[in-house]
What we know:
Blueprint: E1 2-8, H1 16-31, E2 37-38, E3 41-42, H2 43-52, E4 57-67, E5 76-88, E6 91-97, H3 116-129, E7 133-140, H4 141-149, H5 160-169, E8 173-176
Amino acid sequence: MLAKELIVFDSDSPLWQPVSTLLDVALRFDQNDETFSWNGWRKQPIRDFLNSLPSPSSLVAGVWETIPEKEGSPECENLVIGLICEIINGEVCSVRTFDAFTFGGLKSSNQLEPGIDDAREIIRQTEKLVAPVAWALFTEKSTWDEWLFISEEDGTVVDKGQQLATFTRQGRCVLMGSQTK
């Protein structure tokens, strides 16, 4: 799943901590056999998904958290995950945060908003600087956490793709990219 020579960009970004946590999980998948699972995720479906993507391509995830109004400060939405993975031949070969694109004109992570204009700009920058976007997911943190961490109590595998499609139909997230057709 991970290329032998994985390239990490902008690890000094404020967005890096949640990305590094996800990278740790990916490393565990790589280092364990097919029986390893994590919160309803299994190695083979992940591998199948990555192998189904065009090469090269990229995966994008933008996750915002709503901070409620308090003491005169208005409610705001903060970007908590801004992740781009470059995929070549079914392997993740590079990982970066949205902050890697500020040199290309993308707003800094603390200025990005969960709207279509910023989503399109993130995709445009990704396609210009990395690879065509196969899938881009933009969502609220509560939906992300539910998708990422939900697992069946009886140990059965959760169909994460189906779950994400359900969230999309419910309006809880937006999927964009060349593979969404």
